Structures are given as structure tokens and as C-alpha cells.
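Hello K.,

You asked for the raw outputs rather than the summary table, so here they are, unedited. I folded two proteins back to back in the same session to keep the settings identical. This is the first:
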Amino acid sequence: MPTAYTAQAIRRQEHHEVNVASSAAAYDPGDIVLNCIGDGRVGIVAGLEAVAIGDPVTFYVTGQYDVNCASATTFSAGDAVFWDNTNNVAKTTATGGYQYIGRAVRAKVSGQLVVRVEINRQVVVAAGEVTLDGSNPTPVATGLSKVLAATVSLKQATAPGDDPSWLSVDYSGTDGTLNVYAWKNTGGTDPTLVASTNSTAVVSWVAWGV
């Protein structure tokens, strides 16, 4: 009778695999192996049979997997996921020596026992320019699924005038949109900032995300 294994991760999407001629440890199918080939990446043990020390082993190093997670632990889509290699569960931070394994593909709420993770997913950089549209904010489609950090600046070689005199940015949504806010002085000797109505200034933006 075939042996039943409890997988730490279940594959849910296409993957890329790497082969190791001689396994350094014994593994079960679906085991999560940190630094699986020495380059820092996490690997998921492929196949349907257990791997003994010294046996050839194949690791999946890309793709989406349902990863074991404590019921009370929650994630938002795009959150970093870390692995507790002692208790074999996903964690929300690296605190405790947990290693980064990827990004949550979708939200995981309390009560669920797995989080779907795109393993080894790295932060990418998107950048561009946008002309203010006179409203506040001016939305920018970054092409990212989720923005993790961003910065904006006026593209000009001269000192800013009264409109706009300041820029700020918000990316609290989950659709990868960057909202650029422009501000101007109220006027005269009143330096209080109010929403800009400028529709010609060009803004350079850089966003980091997934």
C-alpha cells in the first residue's frame, strides 16, 4: 500500500524545478527546504515518494503553493511570508530567525490553515512619469499587484513655485495604484497647504512592490 504523507506545501500553479544528484537529508514529498541548493532560495520537494539521504532529489523553486499556517495567523495579498522551520508553519515576520519564502497570493483570514504563497517572489521596481491632472490625487497605474513603498518628485530644473509646492503619495489600496497628491500655498503670507489645481507639472515616481 502506498505511504501517505502530510505535505507542508501543496503545489497550485506551474513551477520551475532544479535537480540535486545527492540529497543532504531525508525528505517527504511537499517538504519545504530552506536554502535548498545553496543560493538562498526555498525549495519544495517534488515527487510522490520519500527521499533518502544520498538519493537524487528535485526541488520546485517557483510557483504557487498552499503552505501550512496557524489558524490565527493572517495575511493580506502581497504580504511577505516567512517559514518557521521548527514548527513547520508560515509566519508574518522574520523575528525569531524565520526565513523569507515568498509572497501571499491572496488574503488568509483567521480560521484558515494554509496560506497560498508564490515562493521566492522578489520585490520589483516600477518607475515612470505622470502629468498632474488638476484633481487631487492624480492616480498612477504602476503595473504592480501591490505597492510596498514609493517616492515622488517634481521633474524640473528650477525651484518649485507656489503651485505645486509640495508632493505626497499614498498607496494604501491593493490594486497597485499610486495616488500622487500635489499641494500649493493658500496664498500671500499664508503658508497653509491646500490641494493643488495644477494640470501641467510633470512628476517622476518610483514604486517598489510585487
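The second followed immediately with the same parameters:
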Amino acid sequence: MKFFHRPDKPDTFLNFGTGLIKAFAGTMEHKFEENTIFKNITAAEFEGSERTFEDCQFINCDFSYANFSHITFINCVMDTCNLSLIKLTETGLQGVAFKDCKITGVNFGESSSFSLEVAFKKCVLDYTVWHKKKLKGTIFDDCSFEEADFSEADLTNAEFQKCNLNRAIFNRTILKSADLRSAYNFNIDPENNTINKAKFSADALNGLLIKYNLVID
């Protein structure tokens, strides 16, 4: 299964260590679910620790306030789901694509440090926290990040395509070679973040200079 294929880049979400995760899961009494489509289910029907979902689709589900702690998702799709304020303590997200989802107020910083391989398309990610997460090469396509916190995150080669970054926090964030050419409303301090070879449009350069109170015509 592949997500958001781009002809100029390798398929991003193919076989992210599935065998290793299966082997690990097998030692812990995991409940394993494969190749299943879940539609219109709620958090109450879904919660349960030490579960693994592989190659599953979740469509039009209301998971708001759900506890996803210690659940692992491998090569899964979340489509038109409400995931606001879910709890992600040690949650595994490996090759997970989110499309048209509402994911406000979620702390991705609590998710498993073993692997975080995700992509987002047309999602609302306002007030999310990404503290110290490794998000190299992650694609964010047409998403909203109002007041999101990327402090100390590694966004090397990440792409923010047509993303609203209004009041998003970038503090000691690694943005090397990141693509923000179509992002807007951002405020990034070049002295407090690593932006080597990051890509910006000329029209958005004032987002790098706000602290200097310059007048740019």
C-alpha cells in the first residue's frame, strides 16, 4: 500500500519495518487486525491497549477523546475521521496517512519514539504538539497548523504544501532543506532555528524577518 505517490520521490509509505513490529508484537499478547475497513465507528467501540492494526482503513470514524495509548498502526489510512484530543502515549504510527481529518489538540510528542512515519492531506492540525519528534521528509499537504508547536522537532526535508502556520511555534526546530514555498502565515526566527537550504517563496520572506520590525515593500 502506498500513500500520496509522487513521481519525483520514492514511495514514502512502503513496508516500514512490518516484520520487526510483528515480531515485537508477538511477544506481548497483542490483538492483531489486518486488512480491515472500519466505517462510522466511535472511540468506545475501538479502544483497547496492546493492539496492532496493519493495512487497515478507518473511514468517517469519530475517535475524539479516544485513548490510543500503546496501539500500533502500520500502513493504515485515516479518512474523514475526527481525532481531536486523542491520547497517543507510546502509540506507533508507521506508514499512516491522514486525509480530511480533524486532529486538533493532539500531542504527537507522546507517540512512540520507535518510529513516526506519517503524511497529512487536507487535515486540521491546530494546537498539535510535535516536541522533539523526528519528521524527516514528512509531507503536510493543504493543512492548518494554527498555534501548533514544533519546538525541537526535526523537519529536515519536510514539505508544507499550502499550509497555514499562523502562530505556529518554531523553537530550536531543524528545518534543513524543508520546503515552505507555498506555506503562509509563519513566523520563523532564523537565529533560533536551523534553516540551511530551506526553501521559501520571495513573497513570504517577511515571515523570517518579523522580529526585526522591518518595512518590506
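The helical segments are 18-26, 43-46.

Happy to rerun anything if the numbers look odd on your end.

Regards,
P.
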